[in-house]
Amino acid sequence: MSQGDVPANPRVEGGNGATRERNEREILAAAERVFAAHGYRGASLADIAEQAGLPKSNVLYYMGSKRGLYVRLLERMMARWNALLDDISVDDDPAEVLEAFIRSKMQLSRRHPEGSRLFAAEILGGAPFLQEYLRGDLRDWVQARAAIFRQWAERGLMDPVDPVWLIFLIWSATQHYADFEAQVLGITDRESLSDADVEAITAFLTRVILKGCGVRPRTEPAV
Amino acid sequence: MSQGDVPANPRVEGGNGATRERNEREILAAAERVFAAHGYRGASLADIAEQAGLPKSNVLYYMGSKRGLYVRLLERMMARWNALLDDISVDDDPAEVLEAFIRSKMQLSRRHPEGSRLFAAEILGGAPFLQEYLRGDLRDWVQARAAIFRQWAERGLMDPVDPVWLIFLIWSATQHYADFEAQVLGITDRESLSDADVEAITAFLTRVILKGCGVRPRTEPAV
DNA sequence: AAGCTTCTTGACCATTCGGTCAGGAATAAT
DNA sequence: ATTATTCCTGACCGAATGGTCAAGAAGCTT
């Protein structure tokens, strides 16, 4: 990473031992929590090490540097993200696609709340590490989807709303339940969100957003 | 705040001088930027002082402590927030209320993006300073509005959607353009959002959300 | 002009920061 | 059993952290 002078530590690359794997997992999990809660600058290796149950030196032995650890976490989160960015075609059913979109995004936020918050903190701080990704792969992906949405609109399958704003709407609405969890729980007087809650929220979002942009639900006749 | 041993500094309370006012404004603005970008822990007084164009000691002279400065910023943001939490009644027009709600929230995010991000960072970190506010005033406000939304639904003025999820949807969708500004700009290949952009987004959100929960726009007849 | 309050700031402090390193412990290879 | 390699960690480093303080500068009030 053009970081210079890190010739040693070839072990960092290939992981084979079992304890190594466990330790790395523990460190990544702890680091994700700490970075998510305090951002890149606010996170401290001492905190991470303590939460991972290891001495600070050991964390650095495995991860090389704070920056390297952070980048690795970001990349892991991007990989999870990309895993659900399946391709769609103009011939797919808008209702199915949009519902799957909302649902999978919601599940990602629920399955990896810390990673979701880590991502949010990165963007909040101006995305110093993710500029390239945002202006590259992610932009392309959004534009491709937007093009399909426009074609659906032309075919009368949905209202002619701006597809990019629509994608942002879905992102924000789903991401909210991970990033603003503290607010949601505080206001609704809950300890945590149950599976039933998440299902209800998903159904609500699907219903409102689909109806809101004139997409007829699957198998249901027009009103 | 039960912080103990801060008997001195009576000047911190009453502000009258003109230079004092200017310096305080400068410090608060700089601090809002830094706290927003890096969170409470990640922000440094040296950074804030430099951006305010003052020596670090002077910042502490005016603000007492990092914690005090942060709390003051949060309170200022809550005050801005409360300023647009006007009361509504069951007899108001749902379309008007919801549109005004979306619009004013959008304007708040646009007028005070740093404050908006500061708030977001606080929530992201588990809202250590805002627990009380969330579980108190804000919860009450949400529940009051929710009750009215339910009555509207009973009267057939809107679909019987869960009002709390609806409020969260509006919050998240509008907040997104401040908090995730870096993402929005990166993906849409913009330098900044123009007034026209914001107006278009507001119109989009109003249209989709109102239609999505079955609220008929003002002055328009039923479909 | 004297005296008082407010303002300003460089020097300084204890603590914590990310990171290095030497050397011992554990493990694998022969 | 003896290397050789990998793993582990306490001690340590310079830099940065939030905060204190004393002493001077500036501005009123009398």
How is this structure best described in words?
Two copies of one chain form a homodimer. The first copy, chain A, is mainly alpha-helical. Chain A has two domains: 10-73, Homeodomain-like (Arc Repressor Mutant, subunit A, Orthogonal Bundle); 84-212, Tetracycline Repressor, domain 2 (Orthogonal Bundle), CATH 1.10.357.10. Helix content of chain A is 70%, strand content 0%. The first copy, chain A, contains ten helices and no strands. In chain A, α5 (94-111) packs antiparallel against α10 (195-212). The longest helix of chain A has 25 residues, at 18-42. Chain A is elongated. Chains A and B meet through α1, α6, α7, α8 and α9 of A and α1, α6, α7, α8 and α9 of B. Chain A binds a DNA duplex (30 and 30 nucleotides) through residues 11, 17, 19-20, 44-46, 54-58, 60-61, 65-67.
Short description:
The structure is a homodimer of 223-residue chains. Chain A has 223 residues and is mainly alpha-helical. The first copy, chain A, is built from ten helices and no strands.
Total number of distinct structural domains of chain A: 2
Main sheet characteristics of chain A? none
Kindly state the number of beta strands of chain A: 0
Oligomeric assembly = homodimer
Order of helices and strands of chain A: HHHHHHHHHH
CATH architecture of the largest domain in chain A: Orthogonal Bundle
Instruction: Report the top-level CATH class of the largest domain in chain A.
Output: Mainly Alpha
User: Biggest interface, which chains?
Assistant: A-B, 56 and 56 residues
Strand content of chain A: under 5%
